[in-house]
Write a structure and sequence with these properties.
The complex is a heterotrimer of chains A (244), B (307) and C (291). By secondary structure, chain B is mainly α. Helices cover 80% and strands 1% of the residues of chain B. Chain C has a single domain, classed as Orthogonal Bundle (ABC transporter involved in vitamin B12 uptake, BtuC). Chain C contains eleven helices and two strands. A two-stranded antiparallel ribbon of chain C has the order 1-2. In chain C, α1 crosses α6 and α3 packs antiparallel against α8. The chains are: A alpha/beta (244), B mainly alpha (307), C mainly alpha (291). Chains in contact: A-B, B-C. Chains B and C meet through α6, α12 and α13 of B and α3, α4, α9 and α11 of C.
Chain lengths: 244, 307, 291
Amino acid sequence: MTTLLEGINVTKRFGGLIALNKVNFYIEEEEIVGLIGPNGSGKTTLFNVITGATPATSGTIKFLSKDITKLKPHEICRLGIGRTFQTPKPFPKMTVYENVLISALFGRQLNVKSSEIHDEIQELLEEFDLAEKASLLATNLTLSEQRRLEIIRALAAKPKILLLDETTAGLNPAETLQLVNLVRKVHKEMGVAIFMIEHNLRAIRELVSRVMVLNRGEKIAEGKPEEVARDSKVIEAYLGRSYA
Amino acid sequence: MPARQQKYIYPTIIAIALAVAPLFAPRYFISLLAIVFSWIILAVSWHFFCGSTKYISLGSAAFFGTGFYITALFGKSLPIFTVILLGGVISFLLSFCIGLVTLRLKGMYFAIFTYGLSELLKNTLIWLETVVWGTPGRFVVNLDIEFIYYIMLVLVFVVNAFFYLLRRTRFGYALKAIGESEDTAEHVGINTTIYKTIGFSLSSLFMGVVGSILVTRWTYVDPRMGFSGLYSFMPAIMTIFGGIESKYGPILGAVILSLLSEILLTGFKEYYMVILGAVLLFFVVLLPKGLYSILEKISQKFSQRGG
Amino acid sequence: MFPSLFFEVLIGGLVLGLLYSLVSAGLNLQYGVTRILNVAHGEFLMLGAYTTYFLFILFGVNPLISLLVSGLVSLILMLALYSGIFRIIIKRSSSIEELEMETLLTCFALSFIFQNTAVILFSANERGYIYASQLISIAGIPFALNRIIVAIASSVINFVIYAFMRFSRVGTALRAMVSEPIGAKLVGINASRMYMLSLLLGCILSAWAGSLISMMFAITPFIGSNYLMIALVATVVGGLGSFIGGIISGIIMGYAVYITMRVISPSLTSLVLYIVLILILLLKPRGLFKR
């Protein structure tokens, strides 16, 4: 199995605060890996460093063996790393269709013309049940729909790996189930690897083969979900020493 | 006549009328039209970049003045079209360099940088002229008012068409995406710095061209005239007054405000400025979508009544 | 010859620098807390200058005493602007970028209005008055007494402001708003009161700078713009939002400007300013100091 994404001793400092401390990680092709940890443990910061939204203080990040540590977000997107945000960030005054179109136009490794990809975008929208809302403005969607749009938009750029940041946050159980199925579909049918930050442990258990746990910027455990759930360090991180 | 062709009738009539106007209309009127056209170009150019990306440039005068001064310096020694082209090219290059430095950073830095830019160029040129070259002012090459009118007429159509078409290309989409959510745009594969820089430079190019032509209205000029803060302030207020969200906004604002300017400016300069400032204030605070949005609402009401 | 030039620059640059610190610290404080880049800041300076001028010319009021009045006048003006304009925009803005953009345009319009109103009321001609112009000798170099007074007054004000920001409860709250806008609100800091406070403090500092300037130089309705540009560069150099950065970079700018004016050429001050600005934007855009 080829290693898609790899992080070696990734460290991020904000002034005196150490947000990530020598974090090592790897994601292989076609894996679904979970990233969990208490609030403030550095999960989103790790995503920000991977996508270039904020530079790493030290350490290396490689994608398909190519060093991407110092690349800018748009370059990283075009290499094949897609990402969603915890709070959806669509282009608010553009339609659902246009949101996906922009990603397809700019995010792929090879440029395409808008006339060529119309069918592709239609298909994507239909696959993920947003076709009827294609001409609605992105701000007029519900949270669950916006989350879906984020994923579709990321997919339109044909990524090899998708970084999902708490996609189920704020959704009710029915919507959560819908999203879990969607992620499973993306993984199976499109062969996209997934690295997902999640708080919803059920979603994690359903989807991932492996889970990484961060606490205060350090990786404290890694392994199958059941193993990690029983790890005393993990329990202590979430609930405090008395429970461990 | 089929409906699709009908919508071209009015613009064609207007275009023809404008084309033959110099034959019938008085000189003053032609001169006025040329000035209105030039303000339309300035406002439309400002709007193309600043309206799409939401990066506010307060320094349009720097590029107008650049073109202005290029003609002042070389208008007598080079053919006029070369000089006009040069004015545009140098403005483009200047704003390209500025863009590379400031547009990789947040909008505030861009605003701050452009704010003092025209003062910088003005003061530096004043120093060069008075201390180094010993020419406190320059005599400008003279051009026929009809010549100016025709160039402006062609330009106003060309510039509007250019930006209209450009908006509908990939490039235009990228700028719009940047304006809506720059973070997302970066993550979706758009090299925001390059797109912003080119967009900014294109808009400055035409400002330089306008400056390089309009300078010929005067016989004797100095740096203060070309880099006047008016050319930074007006495109912004015209766009906001007309409506920043519509492509017709800047045109509407430019036509109304420039006509008013020409009528009121003589003799009442400071009062007029205060009123203009108050107008801008009024629109930014209470009517951010500008005049165009009001007109839209009115026409909607009419079509509802009819239907 | 050389040492006397050195001393002249040392003191001259400091006088200017301390003034710039006042203006720049005020601008920085306003932006840091409210995200409003007040490009009409220079006009408050101009207002302070004219207030002191008229009080001196008409009623013989000592310029230092008139600081109280000029501070009050600018405070009232800013209160009116805040209640009538800024509050509306702050309330309806859905994002920080939108807020920054709209308030920028608003302040741009305001500066236009104020400058031209001043031209209408006071005419564009230079005005000045003579105060404390006796020459005092320091290290063998003659300095006008008013410059010494200005240096002392602006040092005192800078010091008091610094102490206030660093040690008082309100000052700490203001600093918290700058570095942690959300966190600050969570711990109970009243945001809108802080907004108003920072705007008021900022414009008072600017007005006082204007009053002090009127003691030394002739004034016109346009002096605001020059000082604003310098304050803007100082703000970027020091770090947008860093209060202490605003003070220190103000002094740096004072020296840069004084040296340029004295040793190179007065018309080239803008060029020097911009070279500094470009260097900072290229090398350390966040400024020399942290928030």
